[in-house]
Amino acid sequence: MARHSPQTDRIVMLMELLAENPGSGRTLADIARHLGVAKATCYPMVVALTESGWLIRHPSRKTYQLGPSLVSIGRAADEATDIVDLARSAMHDLADHAQLACVGFLPSGDDLVVGEIVQPVGGRRGTLGLRLGDKVVLAPPLGAGLAAWYQQERLDQWYALGEQELGVDADTLRARYDPVLAVVRERGFAVECLLQRDRSLADAVSALRRPGIGGSRSTFALREARNLLSAEVPIGDVDTDLDYRPISINATVFGPSGEPAFVLCLVDSPEPVPGRTVLALGEAVRAAAAEVTAATHGHAPAVDSGGDRI
């Protein structure tokens, strides 16, 4: 787990503060008050960012604004998120077909970041309480659809994080999840459901929501959610004769090197649905993910007949 960095948090908070009203700058006193530190503490940071071109200082008003060096960074970020634009049409089709919200996640280290949310034409549906820019810590019981495609070292890290967050031995989690991951690879999509004894994930997310850095994002730590969610969330084989309450039916979009680049999710079913419907929705999500993968000139990793990566 990465160690918390207050100085990094301050830089992000500062950038978000200045981005809220880019046409009007902020004085050093304003910035210090927003960051909750003394002016002497944030002054070296502001000077360094100004020297790098990330900030500019107005010569008479003595205020700071976003600087020209951020333009090229913003362009690079825009190019990096082209996959969201490529996926948007498929997400609209999925949402309309399923009459559920469709959420697109971008992998980012140990997190998934909400890159897009699309609602069906018929009206607004639940989104598990998620908003654009929110981050979800990627560890069991969530993320089987992505973990299925991890290389072994990264998969070991996923299980280790699950041990830390759930208080369940990593080998026990591996024995529970490995067969599920094989099924996910073979059929091309993952299903995550709540058991009857569990609270809704939307309630869990609502309970965990905190003001994020700069007040515009939230991070959901599974160490706080472990008593709200069961380790039985991921589903392997789906019985067509049973009813399920999906919180997510998802499939992975792959980049040119076969790496996971985006995750398409139908989320927050308001009521139980038959297993055959779950499978049909899963096939729709899988097909949409394959379409976006092709649009990005990507390819899925090869899988053998037993559901193992080749």
From TrEMBL:
Coiled coil: none annotated. Gene3D superfamilies: 3.30.450.40, Winged helix-like DNA-binding domain superfamily/Winged helix DNA-binding domain. The keyword Mitochondrion does not apply. The keyword Transport does not apply. Pfam families: HTH_IclR. Residues 69-298 form the IclR-ED domain. Keywords: DNA-binding, Transcription, Transcription regulation. Residues 5-68 form the HTH iclR-type domain. This is Helix-turn-helix domain-containing protein. The lineage of its organism: Bacteria, Bacillati, Actinomycetota, Actinomycetes, Mycobacteriales.
